[in-house]
């Protein structure tokens, strides 16, 4: 079967949003490998990304397309849970589901650096926390 183009995927799933994991090609590739292996079944982002209109807020049941860094389709995921919590209320169980951190302290260090790099870190900042499952792998 021929590989589907991003346009064909979006045409067949008009509600789908597209996004990239991470903020660099290397991180995107690392995270996609964790998603494909099943080690990563959750993610989080600053709630302000959604409330300021930059991205569509995840919705339970919606299927979205995670892109490779070059913009080609990587995987389709389906959102199975969306919650919000403060950065300083993150727990070890959710960080483990993110698949890329040694422990909660490693998560705090990595995400505080990530949010600081993007000019939005505060210990009491609100996060969108999403759990998902892979529906299709386009590799």
Automatic annotation (TrEMBL):
The lineage of its organism: Bacteria, Pseudomonadati, Pseudomonadota, Alphaproteobacteria, Rhodobacterales. It comes from the Bacteria. Transmembrane segments: none annotated. CDD domains: ASCH_Ef3133_like. PANTHER family: CYTOPLASMIC PROTEIN, CYTOPLASMIC PROTEIN-RELATED. This is ASCH domain-containing protein. It comes from Pararhodobacter oceanensis. Residues 19-136 form the ASCH domain.
């Amino acid at each position: 079967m021929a590989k589907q183009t991003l346009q064909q995927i979006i045409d067949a799933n008009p509600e789908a949003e597209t996004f990239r994991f991470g903020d660099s090609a290397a991180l995107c590739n690392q995270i996609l490998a964790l998603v494909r292996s099943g080690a990563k079944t959750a993610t989080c982002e600053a709630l302000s990304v959604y409330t300021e209109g930059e991205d569509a807020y995840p919705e339970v049941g919606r299927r979205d397309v995670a892109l490779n860094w070059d913009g080609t389709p990587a995987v389709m995921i389906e959102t199975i849970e969306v919650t919000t919590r403060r950065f300083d209320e993150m727990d070890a169980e959710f960080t483990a589901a993110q698949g890329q951190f040694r422990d909660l302290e490693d998560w705090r260090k990595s995400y505080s650096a990530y949010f600081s790099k993007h000019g939005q870190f505060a210990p009491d900042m609100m996060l969108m926390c999403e759990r998902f499952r892979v529906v299709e792998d386009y590799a």
